[in-house]
Amino acid sequence: MNIVANPVTEANQTVYLKDYQKPSFLVDTVDLNIQVYADYTKVSSILSMQRQTAGDLVLLGRDLELQSIKINGVALDAAEYQLDSEQICIKNAPDIAKVEIEVIIHPESNTMLEGLYQAGDLFVTQNEPEGFRKITYYPDRPDVLSVFTTRVEADKKYPVLLANGNLLETGEVGAERHFAIWEDPTHKPSYLFACVIGDLAVLKDHYVTSEGRNVALEIYAIEKDIPKCQIAMNALKHSMRWDEEHYGRPYDLDNYMIVAVSQFNMGAMENKGLNIFNTSCVLADEEYTTDAAIMRVQSVIAHEYFHNWTGNRITCRDWFQLCLKEGLTVYRDQSFSEDLQSAAVQRIDDVEVLKAHQFPEDSGPLSHPPRPDHFVEINNFYTATVYEKGAEINRMMATLLGKEKFRQGTDEYFRRHDGQAVTVEDWISSLSAGSGVDLSAFLNWYNQPGTPKLTAHGEYDASTQRYRLSLEQSLKAHAKYPNLKDLPIPVALALFNPKTGEQYTLNCAALIENGVKDGVYLLDQQSAVIEFSGLSEQPVVSLLRNFSAPVNLEFNYSDAELAFLLQHETNGFNQWQATQTLLERILLEDHPAQIYIDAIKQTMPNVIAQDPLLASRLFDVASEGYLASRIDQDYQPEVVHEKREALLNALATALGEFCKETYLSLDVAAQADFSQAMGVRALKNIMLSLMARQGDHQVFDLAHTQYQDSSNMSERVGALKVLVWNDAPQAEQALQDFYHRYSDEALALDQWFMIQAAHPKATAERIAYLTSHADYDLGTPNRIRSVSGGLNANPINMWSFGVAHFIDLAKYLDEKNPIVGARLLQQLSRWYSLAEPQRSQTQSALQALHAQVKSKNVVETLNSMLAV
Ligand code: ARG
Ligand code: ZN
Question: Regarding beta strands 146-155 and 25-36, do their DSSP bridges make them parallel or antiparallel, or are they unpaired?
Fold first, then answer.
């Protein structure tokens, strides 16, 4: 065989959407035989291929040891194909080709957690987006769909042998080894292939679909974690029902398996019938995991399940279309979660994530459209923009259409494209045809980057009792995307009578009905003016209810009007949004804090009594990191920190005894359901931390008692944070106790690392202590993220000694696990906004790193980050 080296430069590695070409060969069937041994794995494959268009037969492969290749029974000799580090290319292949290949791979030393890898005693796969080419040579692209039969063979010390589809046969191979053969009847792309080999216990259940199919449900985990799989199992059954009821989509196979693995780059993966999950996204138990983690488990279970229709049965034509499946599936899981807890709180939580991650990403050097038009490494595009902004685009269309028409649109999408690999255009055309509403303008949201600014201005005329609202959109120029187009922006709004606090019935012809509860206006040009009549007083306007569009709103509210909305808005999301806007003015524009403090003092007792969960969110004060993302130059972490501390201290002082009274009166046990209990726990923790600010030493006793007496992780962790972050006398002892209590619980230990790394006064020495701890493990992304994520919670630390921590990690992971390395590095992407000398220091550190890294992931990320 002849190996041709591939010179690595960004120019020749960039892939463009406009260059898409159909594959020249399709694969009808694949037979895989995967034989796992201690120090190597042999993969044999038989592909039945058929020519579709003119061109070479190309099989993609990376880091494979090729043993042999045959076409139609005849071994190829070296002159008949070209092999390089990325592919085998066969010229003049016959139109019908049975390709037989044998390769050797090394899952036992695969640290990238991509392809087939060994994690402790478990062998698992992660093939999205381009991992299958690390298992064998294959047309590893999502528009090649095939039927897979998989034989897995391993030592009997691994009793569990799983692959996609139905189990056909099991048997022994000599005394020591055994095998299983699985057949997946559905046509799928290679990124959805999965297999698992290991020693795991299983939780079993079943579900009967609306079509009467009895589906066996199985969740695999290590024995001691099986009790922690019950919440996930319930969420799975709930998701299956939910997709039938809301989208008319029943499940299509006789089994659905989920496997929990502790070493995983991302959250989870929707492999057909055999999901593989990060333990953090499947294990849920009030004793061992926090409420936030429990909510996340349920949403990720739903997310991966929903992919079965939006992603698997209808997949992406190419990886530029990633947001087609991810944006839609996130929108679906968000809607599912809105049914699990209060819809307003779920929306608050989702928008918080959007604003904390996607908005900053979209305003900095990593900004890209939800559907990018070029990339070097597709793994770098599993971003907040693709996922979260992608979901927002779907939500805007759903808001505009209303429930019924949106459903007609999705029905049409499933009717037209089931079994196909499609594009964003196909989705928009189906939705338009099915609903009868032309949505083609929404394509612009997919194709261009940036968060639009929506400027609104109101004028009231008392003599005519009319109110004119003018709206205007604008986008910041983007170097790589010069021709930005106007976007369709749905603006949900309500008007309030300032005297009575009541909502006006909207009298305005321009509003869209469509079964949408709030009045919605569609701004589909650069600017517009709408008029409301019959208003006896100058109204208070509440704009973008439920965050009806992912834009930055600028409206000349008075601080008093924002305080009014906190008290009188009936839309919980906009109550929250009003407090956040008020806070930004105080913290970033030096407005006085008193109005906010008074409004909170006045409003919260009522809200706490009625809806503790919503109340807990209304106490949110934007994080320092989020506030930083609103500052584009001369950012000084200390200044933001001090202002935020001053505000929280003033709030704590103003609330005084109220915090303790509230704390003592809140009763978790008296709550009707999990979501209310979750609200009470969150509030108790907020009250504790506000009391700690009042310098009340009794609070440490209360916290310590809460720490010891509670068997609930949210309460325990909440109390531990108060003790540790305030250097309480009990802190060290509580940390030790926590460590010993959970020494065998990886997810709880992640909390232990995180809390210490997130200490506001953490030092480089403290971080070094954590990263040299016996339980720190660079092979486990969750553990890495617990320390780096904790560090990231305090920008003062992050932008001083934290920079070296991130740079060292990126350097190490560049070789060992570049997917995770590049992601962590993205957290430094706002370096350019720092004031000097930190700006130049960080820039030099990044430039020095650039000279030392090789992976496409890290190099592409650094190139973008440094091009500001
Ligand atoms: N498709 C998975 C999801 O549900 C994410 C997989 C991403 N994997 C990766 N290596 N980038 O969102
Ligand atoms: Zn997904």
Answer: parallel
Structural contact between residues 555 and 457, judged by C-beta atoms closer than 8 angstroms: yes
Cβ–Cβ contacts within 10 Å for residue 455, how many?
16
Are residues 170 and 77 part of one domain?
yes
CA-nearest of 183, 235, 419 to 309 is 419
CA of 66 to the centre of ligand 2 (A): 32
CA–centroid distance, residue 127 to ligand 1 (Å): 9
pLDDT of res. 12: 74
Residue pair 444/356 in contact (Cβ under 8 Å)? The answer is: no
- Classify residue 265 by its DSSP letter: S
Tell me: do 146 and 219 sit in the same domain.
Answer: no
Phi, psi of 307 (to 5 degrees): -60, -20
Hey, whose CA ends up nearest to atom 5 of ligand 1?
269
Residue 332 CA to ligand 1 center (angstroms) comes to 16
Q: Note whether residue 573 is domain-resident.
A: no
pLDDT tens digit sequence for 425-477? 999 999 999 999 999 999 999 999 999 999 999 999 999 999 999 999 999 99
Residue 7 has a pLDDT of 45
- Atom from ligand 1 closest to the CA of residue 128: 8
Residues with pLDDT less than 50, the chain: 1-8
Q: Which residues line ligand 1 (CB under 6 A)?
A: 126, 128, 265-266, 268-270, 303-304, 326, 379, 382, 819
Among candidate residues 198, 223, 253, the one where a domain is terminated: 198
- Asked if residue 321 and residue 422 are part of one domain, the reply reads yes
Question: What sign for the dihedral angle of Cα 634, 640, 642, 643?
Answer: positive
Nearest CA to ligand 1 atom 8: 128
212: alpha, beta or left? (left if phi > 0; alpha if psi -120 to 50): left
Within 10 Å of residue 420's Cβ, how many Cβ atoms? 14
| C-alpha 442 – ligand 1 centre gap (Å) | 25
Tokens of 651: 């709030």
Distances (CA, A) of 848 to 148, 792, 843, 859, 861: 46, 22, 9, 12, 14
Q: What is the C-alpha separation between 734 and 720, in angstroms, rounded?
A: 7
- CB of 300 within 8 A of CB of 161? no
Q: Active-site residues: which are they?
A: 304
Q: What is the pLDDT of residues 546-575, one digit of tens each?
A: 999 999 999 999 999 999 999 999 999 999
Specify whether the CB–CB gap between 239 and 301 falls below 8 A: yes
Task: List strand residue ranges (DSSP E) for 621-769, in order.
Answer: none
Q: Are residues 42 and 180 in the same domain?
A: yes
Q: Give the CATH number of the domain where residue 373 resides.
A: 1.10.390.10
Three-state DSSP class for 640?
A: helix
The tokens for 377 are 């490494």
d(CA 14, CA 322): 17
Q: What pLDDT sits at residue 2?
A: 40
**Is residue 651 within 8 Å of residue 600, measured between CB atoms?**
yes
Could you say which of 427, 447, 467 is where a domain stops? Answer: 447
324 and 312 co-located in one domain = no
Cα 213 to Cα 10, 183, 209, 234, 304, distances in angstroms: 50, 18, 5, 18, 20
Whether residues 435 and 459 fall in one domain: no
Alpha-carbon distance of 714 to 291, in angstroms, equals 6
3-state SS record for 210-238: CCCCEEEEEEEECHHHHHHHHHHHHHHHH
Q: Whose CA is nearest to atom 1 of ligand 1?
A: 269
Say whether both 251 and 370 belong to one domain.
no
Element (H, E) at 568: helix 559-568
> Which residue, by CA, sits nearest to atom 2 of ligand 1?
269
- Do 490 and 437 reside in the same domain of the chain? no
Number of domains in the chain: 4
Domain range for 48? 29-198
What CA–CA distance (Å, rounded) separates 662 from 609? 10
